[in-house]
Amino acid sequence: MRVLVTGAAGSIGRVVTPGLNDRGHEVVGLDLVPSPPGHHGQWHTADCTDPAAVDGVVGASRPDAIVHLAGAPGEGSLAESLLSHTHTTGTLLDAMVTHDVRRIIYASSNHAVGRTPRTDSLGVDTRPRPDTFYGAAKVAAEGVLSLYADRYGIDAVSCRIGSFLDHPETLRNLSTWLSHDDCVRMVEAALTAPSPGYAVLYGISNNTRAWWDLEPGRALGFEPLDDAEDWADRIPARDEDDVEGAAVGGPFATKQFERPAF
Ligand code: 15L
Fold first, then answer.
1. Distance set, CA 228 to CA 109, 144, 164, 188 (Å)
2. How confident is the model at residue 119 (pLDDT cuts 50, 70, 90)?
3. What is the C-alpha separation between 216 and 212, in angstroms, rounded?
4. Is residue 250 within 6 Å of ligand 1 at its C-beta?
5. Residue 118 clears pLDDT 90, i.e. is over it
6. Which of 16, 77, 113, 162 could make a disulfide contact with 204, Cβ separation 3.0–4.6 Å?
7. Whose CA is nearest to atom 7 of ligand 1?
8. What is the helix (H) or strand (E) element at residue 38, kind and residue range?
9. 115 CA to centre of ligand 1 in angstroms
10. pTM value?
11. Does CATH place domain 2-257 in 3.40.50.720?
């Protein structure tokens, strides 16, 4: 399958791009910056907030599917967050309609529900409960994906990613970790699942202490194999652990992230 990966030079993109290549997919990279060393194949340097640029890239590359990873990974102002996450999703969806691309996999985030008090198995049907403007922009992006799935019959899978890291670093990460290999498994499953329509899954590894329900992902063929528990005896206790464990969004759901929209 030919897959256009946005944010291909970012932290997740640099793992997913070679991972999909290894699994036999042709990856076309798209990022604000030129291709990192080692990328084979097409690369487009363009800004996903620019509808004309995005239309040009999608028209030139004619992908079978898009994996949308581009976007600032942390909190910004409300306007910056909406531009980075929601607006870019809209430019891609419009280009998909124009050029008849039928599937998009979206790097949403656990912060779309980050203010939800911690549970052992949060499902995907819970109400959106963002913890930051970042989380609110992810909720809005998920909404636009759902809209285009209903309007145009596009398959769209929102992957609410936990903590994408080499290895868990904090107590919270023992619940939220998504390993590099499981991330590639997640993206490939979402790309190849038969007719998902609009679907949401949680992007975490098979963590013993998981806070999110893995079944929606399993229903699409995402079977994570790693477990953060293997790192448990190497995680130092921190003063922040209690407050970061109160809501699923961890630090983003704490006082330090509170700020006005304007
Ligand atoms: C995310 O979605 C963020 O991009 C990242 O910065 C971390 O906060 C991560 O979630 C997490 O929850 O650990």
1. 18, 33, 12, 21
2. confident
3. 10
4. yes
5. yes
6. 162
7. 163
8. none
9. 13
10. 0.98
11. yes
